[in-house]
Amino acid sequence: RTVYLNGQYLPEEEAKVSIFDRGFVMGDAVYEVTCVLEGKLLEFEGHMARLQRSLKELQMHCDISRDEWLEIHRKLVELNGLENGGVYLQISRGNAGDRDFHFPKAGTPPTVVLYTQSKADLRNDPHAETGITVVSVPDLRWHRRDIKTVQLLWASIAKMTAEQQGKDDAWFVEDGFVTEGSSNNCYIVKNGEVITRPLSNDILHGITRGSLLKMMAERQLKLVERPFTIAEAQQADEAFYTSASSFVMPIVEVDGVKLGSGKPGPVAKRLREIYIEEAL
Ligand code: PDD
């Protein structure tokens, strides 16, 4: 792969970052994942807007403009002949010169890394046909989940917990309510109504979520933004999650309880179709 590091396009073996980089030592970095379909970037503006917000919330500075970001994304897709998959972008607070809790001095350049990840065409993901299974775990993450940082250890542990139980993914639960999935926003469907947690610092403001809700509103589909419990999810007709790397993914089991027919439901299937049709 050809990757991008601080202004240069390099073979991945040659892209090297300091052992004193804040991202490495402190988990002090933000990221975005933009989906690529047929060589095209999906939801580019949304991801860049959220990136700017993450940077601002962490008082991190990076003076790459929207147009420059677009050029870097496009060039990486082209150089790597990427058809389907995604572009991973990460900005850390840079090389601090040594380990120190305090931020490095003003003017320290951030470390900017982008690379492509090739995947099968997401539109034909076999998981969408069968639906996926989830288990719940307590949400032990910090309370700024609205900022897309690389501090993903608890999400990793949650995914490993699910895998060890033979399940596909995990849902985080806090104060009795589901916050979100380990790397996605989640929804239940009851009597034709879609229910999802409202935006706050408790969850990541998913770009896919934002677009899907807009598409639903345009079609006058019923949506209620409120938190829901695991018990409520288990009694729901359907459930699904959204993310840039899966679009709309039907969920057929929560903590061992099959939902409805145990197969992907009509609402999730329809929303997946709508999203795929409109997103490209
Ligand atoms: N994850 N919630 C969390 C905790 C996430 O990590 C993600 C995205 C989402 C969905 O956001 P979006 O629709 O903007 O992708 C929600 C990405 C895909 C990842 O970490 O790979």
Number of strands: 15
| Annotation field: number of helices | 8
Order of helices and strands: EEHEEHHEEHEHEEEEHEHEEEH
Report the top-level CATH class of the largest domain. Alpha Beta
Structural class: alpha+beta
Q: In CATH, what is the homologous superfamily of the largest domain?
A: D-amino Acid Aminotransferase, subunit A, domain 2
Overall shape: globular
Mean pLDDT: 97
Which spans have pLDDT < 50 for at least 5 consecutive residues?
none
Q: Hey, roughly how much beta strand do the residues contain?
A: 25-35%
Which CATH-level-2 architecture of the largest domain? Alpha-Beta Barrel
Structure write-up:
It is a single chain. The protein has 280 residues and is α+β, with helices and mostly antiparallel strands. It folds into two domains: 2-119, 2-Layer Sandwich (D-amino Acid Aminotransferase, Chain A, domain 1); 126-279, Alpha-Beta Barrel (D-amino Acid Aminotransferase, Chain A, domain 2), CATH 3.20.10.10. The chain has eight helices and 15 strands. The chain has helices spanning 22-26, 44-57, 66-79, 126-130, 153-164, 207-218, 230-234, 266-279; strands at 2-5, 8-11, 29-37, 40-41, 85-92, 111-118, 132-138, 169-174, 177-181, 185-190, 193-196, 223-225, 238-243, 247-254, 257-258. Strands 7, 8, 9, 10, 11, 12, 13, 14 and 15 form a nine-stranded mixed β-sheet that branches. The protein has a six-stranded antiparallel β-sheet with strand order 2-1-6-5-3-4. Strand 1 (2-5) and strand 2 (8-11) form a beta hairpin. Helix 6 (207-218) packs across helix 8. The protein is globular. The two termini are 25 Å apart. Bound molecules: N-(5'-phosphopyridoxyl)-D-alanine. N-(5'-phosphopyridoxyl)-D-alanine is lined by residues 33, 180, 183-185, 204, 206-209, 242-245.
